[in-house]
Amino acid sequence: MRTPALILATLVALPVPAPVAAQAASERRIDSLLAQMTLEEKLGQLNLITADGRATPAQVEQVRRGLVGGFLNVDGAEATRDIQRVAPGIRTSRRPRRAPRAAKRGRRA
User: Fold this and answer.
1) pTM of model > 0.70
2) Quick count: other Cβ atoms within 10 Å of Cβ 31?
3) 7, 82, 86, 96: which has the fewest Cβ within 10 Å?
4) How many CB atoms lie within 10 A of CB 68?
5) How far apart are CA 96 and CA 91, in angstroms?
6) Cα 5 to Cα 72: distance, rounded to the nearest angstrom
């Protein structure tokens, strides 16, 4: 009878694992982002539209206004970057990403 009580007391005394704390921080960030969005923007995130290789100017305008959550059938990285550049809240950097250290030394990462 003492063993179950001892196990229970040990489990209660254990610290909260890091993944649980990280998940709580992520949820707070998500809640903060959602609080900043209008209802129209939230509904727009549910909107997945299709492009015929490239987004039309009208579709790009919808992205700029935050009314599109994603695209289907966009061909290539360049077309994707063109859309991402106008999306609200997306930070694009002109600085190239740094190569991993192994790649700098001529080894595979």
Assistant:
1) no
2) 9
3) 96
4) 21
5) 13
6) 56
- Domain extents in the chain: 38-91
Pairing of strands 70-74, 48-53: parallel
Query: Residue 105's beta-bridge partner residues?
Result: none
How far apart are alpha carbons 60 and 58 in whole angstroms?
Answer: 5
How is residue 16 written in tokens? 């909260």
- Selection from 85, 84, 88, 71 nearest residue 37 by Cα: 88
Are 80 and 70 contacting, i.e. CB atoms less than 8 angstroms apart? Answer: no
Looking up tokens 């250290």 gives 101
Q: Which residues of 1-109 form beta strands (DSSP E)? A: 48-53, 70-74
Kindly list the averaged pLDDT for each block of 10 residues, start to end, along the chain of length 109.
66 65 86 88 87 90 88 90 82 52 55
Handedness of CA 46, 49, 53, 57 (dihedral sign): negative
